[in-house]
Every structure is written in C-alpha cells, then in structure tokens.
Specification:
This protein is mainly α. It has helices at about 5-15, 20-30, 30-40, 40-45, 55-65, 70-75, 105-110, 115-120, 140, 150-175, 180-200, 205-230, 235-260, 265-280, 290-295, 300-310, 345-370, 375-400, 405-425, 430-455, 460-490, 495-510, 525-530, 535-555, 560; strands at about 50, 80, 85, 90-95, 120-125, 130. The relative contact order is 0.12. Residues about 325-330 and about 565-570 have low confidence and may be disordered.
C-alpha cells in the first residue's frame, strides 16, 4: 500500500497556513538577540581613549581644577606611532610631581619640552584613566588595555570556540533527540551562562562563561532554522529562510539603540540574554518536526502534530494520513560519515563548508575595514544593518525566478570583484572607495544568507541538522581567522586583505556552480535522493499522479448523481 510523505500531507494540511505562520513568527525572534551576542563586543568591550593613572597627577588636577583632557595634555608623554606623535596609552613619566615645581597657572612652561625629553618613563603602575564619561565596558572595569589587551580578542575568540563546539554537539542532538528538544536545551544554556557572563567577578571567569554561552547560542539558532524549514512546503522554504536570517539585521538595528541608553556592559549583557529565557516558553507553542519524527519511525506522534497543524489551519485531512511513513530512511542515527561517505554528499559538504568559511571571512573583514575608518559607532551599526536589507529583498526577488545556484554564485563573484576594485581605487576617492566596498558587503551578505538555506536543501532529513551544523563550523573558524587576516596583512600593504577576500569569494562562486539546482525540488529524505536525484524526481511525479487519480476517484459518477427510479413495466 502507498505510504504518504509529509510533503503529500502538507498539500492538505496547508503548506504555510496560520499554524506555520505563528511558529515562524515566534522563531524569527530568536535571530534578534543573536546579533547582540555576536557583535555586542563593540559596545560591551569598547576601548576608549586611555592613559596611565598617576596619584601625584590626580592630586594636582584636583587642586588646580583641570579636566581629564587638560591633564593628559600636560602630564602624559608623547610617543611616535606610525609617524604621528600621540599621547602614550601605556607609559608615564617616572617623576615626583610635587618636586617638579608644576603650577596651576602656567603648567606647560613649568614642564618644557626639554624637561619632558629628559624625564624617565615607565609602564603604568597605578591603572588607567579613561575618557569614557558615564559609561563602563568590561575593558574599563578590568583594565584590559596595553599588555592585557589580548583578553578583548579572547572575548570574541572564546565565543567562536563555543559556536564551533556547540553547533556540532547540538546539531547531533537535534538529529538524535529532536529539533524542539535541542532548541529548548540551547536556550536554557543561553539563559544560564548569559547571566553568569554578566555576573563575572573577573575576566577569567568572563571568558569561561562566554565560551559556554556560545555553545548554546548558535546551535539553538540552527535548530530553529531547520525546524521551521521542515514545517513548510517547498515553495515557502526560501521565504522563511531569508526572513529568518533578516531578523539578525533587525537585531543589529536595535542593538545600538539599546546600547546607547544602557551604559553599563553588565546590564547590556542581561538585556541581550533575557529573550533566551523567554524562549523557554516555546515549549508550549512550537511542535516537534514531523519530518524528523518520521525519520525516527515515530509516525504516531508525527500524525498527531500534523493533525494539529491542519486543525489550526482549518483544513481537513484524508483518513489516509495514518499511512504517512518514512519507509526509505536508511538509518535513524546521523553520523559525520554520512556527510562524506558517498561522492555527491562529499562534494556538497566540501563546497558548502568552503562557502561558510569564505562568507565569514569576507563579511566580517569588510565590516572591520569600514570600522577602522572611525566615525560614530552607533551610526556605523545602523548603516551596516541597513545594507543587509537590500540583500534579503534581492534574494526573495531572484530565487524563485532564477533559482538558487546562479544568484548564490553571482553574489560571491560580485563581492570578489568589489574587493578587487576597492583595492585599486586611490585613497583620495574616499567616498567612491567606500561605496564600492559597500557593494561588496551587499554581495557577501547575499551569499551568507543563501548558504544557510541551500545547505538545508542539499541534505536528507535524518542528517540535515547535523549537516548544517558541521558545515557552519567553518564559519566559526573563518570568524577567528578574519581579524588576523585583516590586520596582519594590512600592516604589510593596506589593500592586501581585499585581494585575499576577492580571491576567496571568486573561488567560492565558482564552486557553487558545481552544486545542483534545488528550486522546486522536494526536500530529500534519504542519501539515495542526493546520489540519484532522478529517482527523487520520479518519486515526486508518482506522488503527483497518485493524488490526481485519488481526486478523480473522489468525483461522483453519473450513476451517483442520477435519481433512483423504479423500472417501468410495459
């Protein structure tokens, strides 16, 4: 007897009805706090202008009524940095300020350039003064500057380590124990360790808690993405995928506003974490994925959830829903070897992993490059968020008309070309150079958003979450590599990072052309559907033909519509 697939049942239950829209709206909320976790370091770890604190100088400043900047100008030594004289951030004069004869009325004459040049200097001994009125970052609280500035880099590095381990571990748990379960466990971890980060008594505990925080954040986001993708029909996958990611950009727009009004990094951390605690209530509002349940041979529960979806969508299901099965599933347990055992799965894994890696490096690299130009950090964040919205709309406009593969490859190639062109534009054409770099940012944003849902469409159900998680770990590695690639190469030649970014993006675009087109193709259920796509198409055609015959059989016959009459006697 014929066994219906979940796609068959969705034809009746509703491919994107009220139930899926409600679940989708709830899960989109998950993307917004992730922006705060991922880029919140810009505000939480902000490093303001700073210089050595000197108790002797502090006494003179208080007695003379000088402000901080006047004090720095008079008492902080100048050092040569890249050919420019700037006030030292890590050294101070080793002087007894009470013996210098410094007066309040004419201090610069009292401490002449000749005296300054001969004065001995030493590293900061009593901490630092910060030009950061009314605000506090963990940098200013723990004095993470000069010799300890590396801790700020570790703050982001430990997060990416957590992303790396968590995306694999939670991806495995999602395929083994369910999308909903792993999503809820992730948010529980996020809530616990996010609050612990805010309560950290020192920078060591802060880094440890930050790593555990990253462990849950990304894995939970991916689990939510896979869940909503598996609940909707084929033609709606691209929309939910792009909009789900677009809410990350919404988070980027909201973050500077929140950070402007919340001036303490600890309270900002609490506000960023609070939504994850609220997401635990989703236990009562979102279902498990029926596709995953079928892959685990739990048809009874899959039927219950599908019936609930149909009821909320105000649809009526045929009695044959009890025949919904996943008879072709080869195994109920996913493993990494499933991703590389067969030729096409191996090819998909390599190409997708490289695209995750490239997208992370180029995306973050271009953002950091624009960031070193200076300006208002809040406005810069708004601009960076606004640039991402056209990318989402371009994807939605092209992906159903052209397909996945060509826009995906083109986005990478455009990003690469923009990087090369930007490198060749002279510094005197600043705004033109910035505009071309923004085009590159637009292209790589499109590529970054597309790699996520293309990834889900190229793996079968039982290993889909693990496949997305494993491939996306290269994104975390790229995130760790990006700052080193940018700053180390820029020290040799300022435009060299752009050349590397362009080359990576071109290679990524070329590799994408080797992937199959997935527009209008049902989500694969087995590895055979990947290795032998023609069989998958035949199965889909048989399903359509069967539904057509069923509809014909349900139509009343002529005998059914004719009134019953007694035979006439002659």
């Amino acid at each position: 007897m014929y066994s219906y697939t979940f796609d068959d049942i969705l034809e009746e239950a509703g491919k994107f009805g009220r139930s899926q829209k409600r679940i989708f709206a709830l899960l989109c909320m998950v993307s917004m706090p992730w922006a705060g976790v991922y880029v919140g370091i810009v505000f939480q770890g902000f490093t303001p202008e700073h210089w050595c604190r000197d108790s002797g100088v502090s006494q003179i400043r208080q007695s003379c009524g000088w402000n901080l900047m006047d004090t720095r100008k008079i008492t902080v030594p100048l050092v040569n940095t890249s050919g420019v004289l700037v006030h030292s951030q890590c050294e101070q004069y080793n002087l007894d300020w009470n013996a210098t004869g410094l007066t309040c009325d004419n201090p610069e004459s009292d401490l002449s350039d000749a005296h300054r040049s001969k004065a001995p200097m030493t590293s900061c001994k009593e901490g630092w003064e910060y030009d950061y009125k009314g605000r506090q970052s963990f940098v200013t609280e723990f004095d993470l500057v000069c010799a300890d500035a590396w801790v700020v880099d570790m703050y982001q590095a430990t997060l990416n380590v957590g992303f790396f381990i968590g995306s694999i571990a939670i991806g495995y748990l999602a395929d083994r124990f369910g999308r909903k379960t792993s999503f809820l466990v992730s948010n529980l971890l996020n809530g616990i360790f996010g609050i612990l980060v805010a309560w950290s008594p020192n920078w060591v505990s802060m880094l440890v808690f930050r790593a555990f925080y990253g462990f849950g954040v990304k894995g939970g986001w991916v689990a939510g993405y896979v869940l909503i993708t598996e609940l909707v029909g084929v033609e709606y996958r691209r929309t939910v995928g792009v909009v789900y990611q677009m809410f990350f950009s919404v988070g980027i727009l909201i973050l500077p506003l929140i950070s402007y009004f919340i001036t303490d990094w600890r309270w900002l951390q609490v506000v960023i974490t609070a939504p994850y605690i609220l997401f635990l209530s989703y236990y009562w509002f979102i279902p498990e994925s029926p596709r995953w349940l079928l892959s685990q041979h739990n048809a009874k529960k899959a039927v219950e959830i599908t019936e609930a979806i149909a009821k909320e969508n105000k649809k009526t299901l045929s009695k044959n829903i009890e025949m919904m099965r996943d008879d072709n599933a080869e195994t109920s347990t996913a493993s990494f070897m499933d991703l590389i055992r067969t030729p096409k799965m191996r090819k998909h894994t390599f190409i997708l992993s490289f695209n995750w890696f490239t997208s992370a490096i180029v995306y973050q690299g271009l953002i950091m490059r624009l960031g070193i130009l200076g300006g208002n950090v809040y406005i810069d964040f708004l601009i960076s968020g606004l640039v991402e919205f056209p990318a989402a709309f371009l994807i939605l406009f092209t992906i159903d008309r052209i397909g996945r593969r060509l826009p995906f490859a083109t986005a990478n190639i455009v990003a690469g070309a923009a990087c090369f062109i930007t490198a060749m534009i002279p510094e005197s054409m600043f705004w033109f150079k910035t505009a071309v770099a923004c085009i590159g940012r637009l292209g790589i944003t499109m590529a970054f958003e597309m790699v996520v849902f293309v990834n889900t469409e190229l793996y079968p159900t039982f290993v889909r979450n693990l496949g997305v998680s494993v491939c996306s770990t290269l994104c975390d590695i790229g995130g760790i590599v990006a700052p080193f690639l940018l700053y180390r190469l820029a020290a040799i030649w300022l435009e060299m990072p752009l050349i590397i970014f362009g080359a990576l993006a071109f290679v990524a675009g070329a590799l994408v052309l080797l992937l199959p087109e997935t527009r209008g193709v049902p989500l694969p259920d087995t590895i055979d559907d990947i290795e032998f796509p023609e069989k998958c198409k035949e199965k889909a055609l048989r399903s359509i033909e069967l539904r057509r015959k069923q509809m014909i059989n349900l139509l009343p016959t002529a005998a059914d519509v004719m009134p019953n009459k007694e035979p006439e006697t002659v």
